[in-house]
Specification:
With 93 residues, the protein is mainly alpha-helical. The chain has a domain of 65 residues: lambda repressor-like DNA-binding domains (434 Repressor (Amino-terminal Domain), Orthogonal Bundle), CATH 1.10.260. It is built from six helices and no strands.
Length: 93
C-alpha cells in the first residue's frame, strides 16, 4: 500500500527552497546574508509573499544560483545545441 501522493511543488517558493537547501543554508543563515528575517524566507518559500527583483538577486547571489532559475525555473534555461541535429543541419545545407 502506498501513501497519498503529494503534488510536486514547482513555483517560485519551491525554487527558493531548492537553492537554499542546495547551498546548505538554514532560513536564518539565508536571511542574515540577504538582510531578511527567517519569517520572510519562510513566507517566500511557502508562496505567501511575492519576491521582489532585489530579493531574487540577493537570494541568487547568497546561494550561488543563477537568477534566471529563481525567476523562471528550468524554462529559463538555454539548452545546449544538439550535436546530432547540428550535423543533420550541416548535411541538409
Amino acid at each position: 500500500m502506498t501513501g497519498p501522493e503529494h503534488p510536486r511543488r514547482t513555483g517560485v517558493g519551491a525554487r527558493v527552497r531548492a537553492v537554499r537547501v542546495f547551498a546548505d543554508l538554514t532560513r536564518e543563515e539565508l536571511g542574515r546574508r540577504i538582510g531578511a528575517s527567517p519569517r520572510t524566507i519562510r513566507r517566500l518559500e511557502d508562496d505567501q509573499r511575492r519576491m521582489t527583483d532585489r530579493e531574487r538577486a540577493r537570494i541568487a547571489w547568497a546561494c550561488g544560483a543563477p537568477e534566471w532559475f529563481l525567476a523562471s525555473g528550468w524554462e529559463g534555461a538555454q539548452s545546449p545545441a544538439d550535436p546530432a541535429q547540428e550535423s543533420q543541419d550541416d548535411r541538409d545545407g
